[in-house]
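Shapes recur. One chain:

:::
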Amino acid sequence: MKFYICKEKEEPKEGRIAIIGAGPAGLSAAGYLACKGYPVEVFDKMPEGGGMIAFGIPESRIPIKTVREGVKDLERLGVKFNFRTKVVYDNLRDLGDEFVERVVYLEELLEDFDAILIATGAWRPKKLKIEGIELEGVWDALTLLYKIKLARIGYIPWSAVPEMRGKEVVIVGAGYTAVDVALEAKSLGAKKMTMVYRRGLENSYAKDEIKRLINEGVNFIEFATPARILGEDEVKEVEFVKTKLVNGKVIPTDETFKLSADIFVYAIGQFPTPPIKALICANEKILRDAGIFLAGDVLAPRNIGAAIREGTRAAKEIEEWLISKEERPRVLSIRSFLLSQRSEIWQNC
């Protein structure tokens, strides 16, 4: 996988750049800036590069070998990688933190680098808030896919992954993440898979892939949303409420039904995970003036191609900023900076 194609590397330039996050947006930015001759360091909490495409997308869709080749290309271009390193300000725990061996504070990077690109992605799954969510056998899609991928590429034993062979799997959602769960469940021997979506199939941006899954035996139920998960210690059934669309809005009806389930997976999205939450709400001009840039899923969910393009776009903005800047503001205290710009920063939240 090529994150950036550098035809000829330019002469070295002044201006050190730190990139937080080694997903597709961060890697494409690193490639562009290194090609332009800038010294670039990438910081990521995982043991190797790729972000979600390495640790969240099924091996059958994107083999880890191709991701590793792309990262090696960037290393040959001069990009320095700091893996198993988490950049922090707010001390929140997310998926992947178990690999962290070193912690770097955001203020340190602000002091040591001329520009910072935050491309930390969205590693915190949204939680479904219904009765029974704590039962054994209930998984958010991101955590499940993450564990399966870790097992496939040798980071954890398969005993840490739920057994799916011969099981009934119910999946809530109709995006690409839900599709990936269905693909993995199928490959791991699930007896029956049912996808449930609160809207109609034609409303799903992954409808073509879902139609292929339907042709391969996956059940698909549209216009329904989960109401509660039933079981003693582990999931046995899931009760759903039928829905309808009224002026584009999903409205629950009085009609209900139940599906038996050994494993229940919900794919309802993720939250962005920047080093400090307020940064994703900030006025971009204020951040840019301080040499702080954002790209990728940390702003909003994107597909891989869009993330790569946005990483390159952000890298070009950094290059332009480095060339045109007169004197970079010294932003050594994130807390002081955010407080001083409070009204402007929170206007977008």
Summary: DSSP finds eleven helices and 17 strands in the chain. The longest strand covers residues 249-260. The chain has two domains: 17-124+270-348, 127-266.
